[in-house]
């Protein structure tokens, strides 16, 4: 069992928009612009819009289940610049922009609690 | 934003339960059965089932997807396998036939106890004031009348089940 070592972390200011889902928040506009908008063609017909929303909720529900299946398990993250780390998955935020993990194994030690930025991740994998 | 992220949910849904090959950033390639595509991040959840019943899951983040190639369509079997892999423990998917027989059994039991019951679509309607939705457990009874609710709930719990 590796001994946890303290790792220097850069300070982050508080998020001025506590509801990260606010479509007018700077964070949302910068990082995930059009994920919530429905297609313009679907505006014309209620049926098409309903089908699209049904598809959206089905897909999202399955994704949330995949996140749930990951909770508490060791997950391997492949990031850019050939960085590979392993950690115990904790939680994700609503926009899938940050992952909270524990016992993050890094080349300079084990970080007890950490936040991974999803734009830095290419893939992640785990066993169920 | 890459073309993959600009697709519509209905387009993403067409990949679900099918086998694909994903080419991602830094020349990585991944292959597997698509469990889902997250509509918020366009991340693809790929599953590779193993012989021992477990599975290896790889998720490619939407922003890193370069190309997605459809390899083969899945079938009912792989769809079932994927759904059951991620279902939480304790939740079972009940087949239509089982639901129908449960409904019939419960209805017969209620009628035996001289409770007026009719069928309203998938639900049972008791005395016009209580509904029993699938899967017809005591927790599935809905009514605004406490007395009838508790009576029917105890009846549902004491149902001896399908006879011989």
Automatic annotation (TrEMBL), chain A:
<dbReference type="Pfam" id="PF11095">
    <property type="entry name" value="Gemin7"/>
</dbReference>
<dbReference type="GO" id="GO:0034719">
    <property type="term" value="C:SMN-Sm protein complex"/>
</dbReference>
<protein>
    <submittedName>
        <fullName>Gem (nuclear organelle) associated protein 7</fullName>
    </submittedName>
</protein>
<dbReference type="InterPro" id="IPR024642">
    <property type="entry name" value="SUZ-C"/>
</dbReference>
<dbReference type="GO" id="GO:0000387">
    <property type="term" value="P:spliceosomal snRNP assembly"/>
</dbReference>
<feature type="domain" description="SUZ-C">
    <location>
        <begin position="1"/>
        <end position="25"/>
    </location>
</feature>
<feature type="region of interest" description="Disordered">
    <location>
        <begin position="1"/>
        <end position="21"/>
    </location>
</feature>
<dbReference type="InterPro" id="IPR020338">
    <property type="entry name" value="SMN_gemin7"/>
</dbReference>
TrEMBL record, chain B:
<dbReference type="GO" id="GO:0097504">
    <property type="term" value="C:Gemini of Cajal bodies"/>
</dbReference>
<dbReference type="GO" id="GO:0000245">
    <property type="term" value="P:spliceosomal complex assembly"/>
</dbReference>
<dbReference type="GO" id="GO:0032797">
    <property type="term" value="C:SMN complex"/>
</dbReference>
<comment type="function">
    <text>The SMN complex catalyzes the assembly of small nuclear ribonucleoproteins (snRNPs), the building blocks of the spliceosome, and thereby plays an important role in the splicing of cellular pre-mRNAs. Most spliceosomal snRNPs contain a common set of Sm proteins SNRPB, SNRPD1, SNRPD2, SNRPD3, SNRPE, SNRPF and SNRPG that assemble in a heptameric protein ring on the Sm site of the small nuclear RNA to form the core snRNP (Sm core).</text>
</comment>
<keyword id="KW-0508">mRNA splicing</keyword>
<dbReference type="Pfam" id="PF06372">
    <property type="entry name" value="Gemin6"/>
</dbReference>
<keyword id="KW-0539">Nucleus</keyword>
<keyword id="KW-0507">mRNA processing</keyword>
<comment type="subunit">
    <text>Part of the core SMN complex that contains SMN1, GEMIN2/SIP1, DDX20/GEMIN3, GEMIN4, GEMIN5, GEMIN6, GEMIN7, GEMIN8 and STRAP/UNRIP. Part of the SMN-Sm complex that contains SMN1, GEMIN2/SIP1, DDX20/GEMIN3, GEMIN4, GEMIN5, GEMIN6, GEMIN7, GEMIN8, STRAP/UNRIP and the Sm proteins SNRPB, SNRPD1, SNRPD2, SNRPD3, SNRPE, SNRPF and SNRPG. Interacts with GEMIN7; the interaction is direct. Interacts with GEMIN8; the interaction is direct. Interacts with SNRPB, SNRPD2, SNRPD3 and SNRPE; the interaction is direct.</text>
</comment>
<dbReference type="InterPro" id="IPR046857">
    <property type="entry name" value="Gemin6_Sm-like_dom"/>
</dbReference>
<keyword id="KW-0963">Cytoplasm</keyword>
<dbReference type="InterPro" id="IPR009422">
    <property type="entry name" value="Gemin6"/>
</dbReference>
<dbReference type="InterPro" id="IPR046856">
    <property type="entry name" value="Gemin6_C"/>
</dbReference>
<feature type="domain" description="AD">
    <location>
        <begin position="69"/>
        <end position="164"/>
    </location>
</feature>
<keyword id="KW-0597">Phosphoprotein</keyword>
<protein>
    <recommendedName>
        <fullName>Gem-associated protein 6</fullName>
    </recommendedName>
</protein>
<dbReference type="Pfam" id="PF20417">
    <property type="entry name" value="Gemin6_C"/>
</dbReference>
<dbReference type="InterPro" id="IPR047574">
    <property type="entry name" value="AD"/>
</dbReference>
<dbReference type="GO" id="GO:0000387">
    <property type="term" value="P:spliceosomal snRNP assembly"/>
</dbReference>
